[in-house]
């Protein structure tokens, strides 16, 4: 089959690779209907994290089940399924605690399972899914094609935005600032809105993203960053800042801005993959009682809550996709995101 | 009057100082019935934080109101009052948000008020209390002397332990580990118990403190520290760790132990004054979804909740005092705590 392989910095190719097949009785094989490129895929693409040897890439997909192992009972051949950006058993103590990203038997697409067997990346034609019962969520019926982008966001960015909001304790009446206007940041706006936030500020300087942020529920848009951004935010919220700040970037600058923006006693919910730090300034956090909570988002556990709203059209997180390409043009998908010509690119095998 | 003055490293004296008096209409003057020495007072005592010039010290006291300014309405001459370890107006936006330690007009004992007027330290015979309505809580009647130690803990250590537990999200059924067996750590055990924790581990290697920890509700005591302590704790809680870890020390080692002990998705509630760091390891926190929440405890806001239980004897946090001395022996009080001959020393002017 064809699959996306990263060979090195800015060198992404669609190559021929062996077809995946069932390797254990708990596996499924899924034909990918849509996959996409993640902001975190750009770290190896940009060479920020090194690629020592060619490696399957991609961790967000939806598709149709083509085969299931003998021990798979919750998904069936022909089902349309959503896969989170990792696989997990949904039964271990960490999964039961709602932290399936720390599953004791799980792992990552484009890697290996606990037995060392290969697990393909998601930007390909097919994926072997270990722990299929724990990992996959089937929709009640095969959805209209128009719903595919929004369903695909449940694999990562919508669930991750939701995690940022939950981690920051967003609830009815909360005041919220979202740092980052990428796909996750925009989804965090939407998540905050559906959790009942009374005021939501999107920190954004891109006109097209501002439009989506407002569609998703942002009441205000602030283009300033750094010291100016913090000052502007403080001023907007009683001179002290908002209850919740959702950090959706992962750089030292964005985390610093998030921590300094929150009001005393406020909470930063962060989901941006920390890129080589920063370490958090405990003295400032202590003095202001600003908490920091979040991490790699356990999106598998959020699918059941969010799926009905996607299917009904109540939320349309798929709006974050502003470019759709055939899988064969994966290299262009990466370039478009790297050069910020696209917010989020959907790939169709 | 007589008051405790720190002159430098390991040089604490009781000196003659001017009597405090009303300086603004919102002041009260309180005659100190009991004060005490805080673990954080040991940082200047040990020279870890420098003392550039002689300075009034002490920030925990209870007493009897002797004078009130014309604008004071909630406390009256003759009232027995509890003062938090800071003064605050209880009306500004931060106070209303429950973060009175970030009061916009408040400040610290042994310092100055917002107008630059002197505010005495608490380890003396009398204290001028700015913002008396916001700061002081009067008991319904002058309490029995036997209740004074427990009431005094509401000025700091009991409220601080409670803050650690709240910050970590302790609730009915939570599993909890408390790092630190000083007065705050012991109070954190008590706080976790009254919030409904199902299992509470006190990390302690001092027999006398272990006894109090068990009295306060600890179900287990673990003497190991560092890697051994973490391994022991993981093993006790499904191999993954407890829901909540209460960090009540403030050193790099204790915070590291706390973060590594929490289960994935767990929360560290920290109240130990960070002593020169550490910066928090965001990569580990991100990967495990362990949150960090807490800071300088807004104990003023907790007095109303905890006071009835102290008055009824339902909780006896005053058990943390294991030495009582006359004010004139303040130097011995510091030495006893520094040398760990005492957990917490009560001073009587």
Automatic annotation (TrEMBL), chains A, B:
Gene3D superfamilies per the UniProt record, alphabetical: Medium-chain alcohol dehydrogenases, catalytic domain (3.90.180.10), NAD(P)-binding Rossmann-like Domain (3.40.50.720)
Membrane-crossing residue ranges in chain numbering: none
Domain of life where this protein originates: Bacteria
Molecular function (Gene Ontology), one example: oxidoreductase activity
Keyword Metal-binding: yes
InterPro entries for the chain: ADH-like_C, ADH-like_N, ADH_Zn_CS, ER, GroES-like_sf, NAD(P)-bd_dom_sf
Assigned keywords, A-Z: Metal-binding, Oxidoreductase, Zinc
Domain Enoyl reductase (ER) positions: 8-347
PROSITE patterns: ADH_ZINC
A Pfam family this chain is assigned to: ADH_zinc_N
Cofactor(s) recorded in Swiss-Prot or TrEMBL: Zn(2+)
Family note: Belongs to the zinc-containing alcohol dehydrogenase family.
Name the UniProt record assigns to this protein: Zinc-dependent alcohol dehydrogenase family protein
Organism: Sanguibacter suaedae
């Amino acid at each position: 089959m064809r699959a996306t392989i990263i060979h090195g910095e800015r060198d992404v190719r669609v190559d021929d690779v062996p077809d995946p097949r069932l390797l254990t009785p708990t596996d499924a094989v899924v034909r990918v209907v849509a996959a996409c490129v993640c902001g975190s895929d750009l770290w190896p693409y940009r060479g920020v994290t090194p690629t020592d040897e060619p490696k399957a890439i991609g961790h967000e997909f939806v598709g149709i089940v083509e085969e299931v192992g003998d021990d798979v009972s919750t998904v069936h051949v022909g089902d349309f399924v959503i896969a989170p950006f990792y696989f997990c058993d949904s039964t271990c103590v960490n999964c039961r605690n709602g932290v399936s990203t720390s599953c004791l038997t799980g792992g990552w697409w484009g890697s290996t399972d606990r037995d060392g067997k290969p697990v393909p990346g998601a930007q390909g034609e097919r994926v072997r899914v270990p722990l299929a019962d724990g990992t996959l969520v089937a929709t009640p019926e095969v959805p209209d094609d128009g719903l595919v982008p929004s369903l695909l966001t449940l694999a990562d960015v919508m669930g991750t935005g939701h995690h940022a909001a939950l981690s920051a304790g967003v609830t009815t009446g909360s005041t919220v600032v979202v740092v980052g206007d990428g796909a996750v940041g925009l989804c965090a706006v939407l998540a905050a809105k559906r959790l009942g936030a009374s005021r939501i500020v999107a920190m954004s300087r891109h006109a097209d993203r501002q439009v989506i942020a407002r569609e998703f529920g942002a009441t205000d848009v602030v283009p300033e960053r750094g010291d100016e951004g913090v000052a502007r935010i403080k001023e907007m919220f009683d001179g002290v800042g908002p209850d919740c700040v959702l950090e959706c970037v992962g750089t030292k600058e964005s985390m610093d801005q998030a921590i300094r923006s929150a009001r005393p006693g406020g909470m930063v919910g962060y989901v941006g993959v920390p890129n080589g730090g920063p370490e958090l300034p405990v003295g400032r956090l202590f003095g202001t009682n600003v908490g920091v909570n979040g991490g790699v988002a356990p999106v598998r556990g959020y699918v059941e809550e969010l799926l009905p709203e996607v299917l009904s059209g109540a939320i349309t997180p798929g709006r974050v996709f502003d470019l759709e390409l055939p899988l064969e043009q994966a290299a262009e998908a990466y370039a478009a995101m790297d050069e910020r010509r696209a917010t989020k690119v959907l790939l169709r095998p």
